[in-house]
Amino acid sequence: MSAPEIHVEFAPELALFIPQGRRLGATPVTTDGTSSLGHVVESLGVPLTEVGTLRVNGREVPRSYVPSAGDTVDVLPVARPQQVPGAPLRFLLDVHLGTLARRLRLLGVDTAYESTDIGDPALATRSATEKRVMLSRDRGLLHRRELWAGAFVYSTRPEDQLRDILDRFRPELRPWTRCTACNGLLREATKEQVADRLEHGTERSYDVFAQCEDCGRPYWKGAHHEQLEAIVANALAEASRPTPPAAPPRRS
Ligand SMILES: [Zn+2]
Fold first, then answer.
1. Which domain-ending residue is among 45, 77, 109?
2. CB 178 within 8 Å of CB 210
3. Which of 29, 39, 186, 238 could bond 210 through an S-S bridge, CB–CB 3.0 to 4.6 Å?
4. 96 located within any domain
């Protein structure tokens, strides 16, 4: 039997993963007649973490579907908000996403972050062990089978990254409850409790304190507070918007 040719069309949201020549319209793809559609899509460069519904000739199929000659395939992006069943929603960020990690923690979202490059296998293992959604801009990492779950971070700008992740996963926000340095939980503290960890000027000027239960770092309403307040206010405003209805099927 000769290799079947199928036609694959990607939703615009997925176009950035596709080499230039494949972006417009349905692209002819020659398959081997045994690989699953999920494998075919991945081999074209699209991480499966970003793929939602697959349709063949207008009918939804599982990723295990083996395409046959003449099939027309539509590849849709992952639905939003995205559900990640099986564990409380929590994240693991790679070494390049430090600012996003601190902002998620500021909002009270459980966010592990590796500040050194521990390598893709170790990251994938940690994602699996702790059931954390791996956030990365590294497609190779997102292709790894061991991942508990993963998501591509589309922007290089922290503001856009934060907006995108909050829109995609809609995590519960509990601002000012986590340590931005280590992800530990904060508890209220008196000035006396944290006095030995404060600069002299801080001790004199401020008196609203909290302390990280894990690393002991003190928190107070300090110099950068307005900027942090703005990040929190923006996130809460976006989160209170109603979820838009699911987009209608683009075409049959
Ligand atoms: Zn801490």
1. 77
2. no
3. 186
4. yes
In a domain, 42, yes or no: yes
Alpha carbon of 159 to ligand 1 centroid (Å): 23
Q: How far is the CA of 242 from the centre of ligand 1 (A)?
A: 33
CA–centroid distance, residue 36 to ligand 1 (Å): 45
What is the residue range of 184's domain? 91-240
Residues near ion ligand 1 (CB < 5 Å) are 179, 181-182, 184, 212, 214-215, 217
Give the 3-state DSSP-derived string for 111-176, with helices as H, strands as E and coil as C.
EEECCCCCCHHHHHHHHHHHCCEEEECCHHHHCCCCCCEEEECCCCCHHHHHHHHHHHHCCCCCCC
pTM of the entire predicted model = 0.90
Does residue 95 sit within a domain? yes
User: Residues 140, 191: one domain?
Assistant: yes
